[in-house]
Amino acid sequence: MESFAALEKILLHSEYQDADGNDFAIRKALIDTGGHRAAEVFEWARKMGNLVIPIKGADRQSAPLRWHKQEFYPGTNKQIPGGMQRLDIDVNYYKDKLSGKMEIAPDDPGAWRMCADCTEEWARQMCSETIDEKTGRWVPITENRPNHAWDLGGYGLALADLLGVRFWKREKPAAPSPAPAAESGWIKGQSGDRTGGGGSWLRRK
Predict the structure, then answer these.
(1) What range defines the domain where residue 92 resides?
(2) Quick check: is 186 in a domain?
(3) Of 26, 73, 111, 118, which has the maximum CB count within 10 A?
(4) pTM value?
């Protein structure tokens, strides 16, 4: 369970800031249930409550996102108390979408941007698959080539759709306060003004 403890540290006990120093917390995460530890993944996701959504990639389906009721832990006859909702994601749909974003110029709206500390290995994984012209599906360029970054990019777009990110409204920055009006020195009776002293001419009798 060490790997799950590491995930909890990332999700719950790490700090994230934008370029302006604003703090952010992770509010929703996805975890793939397609591996050999699927039962453990469901148990951990259940422990994490609404923060973590168990997912499974689908080759083709009627909708890009579809919920599935998971009654039993995968590979077992053990029932999940109350059952769990698994999100099935059409991976080809979202990889098509990701590929389109990568073709947009970096400074244009909708472009896919990488972090400043992106590694060469991560960049290689983003180029790990290609379209099979016969099936129209994404397939590895070479067998057993790591594609984790490419998968995560597609899943990230799926989560953005699930949360309706494109409909979020940006908070407008507060308008700067107007500068105070300049005050004339001779009205206030400052040194060297027309009163010849510190008093205001408005008070002279």
Answers:
(1) 4-167
(2) no
(3) 73
(4) 0.79
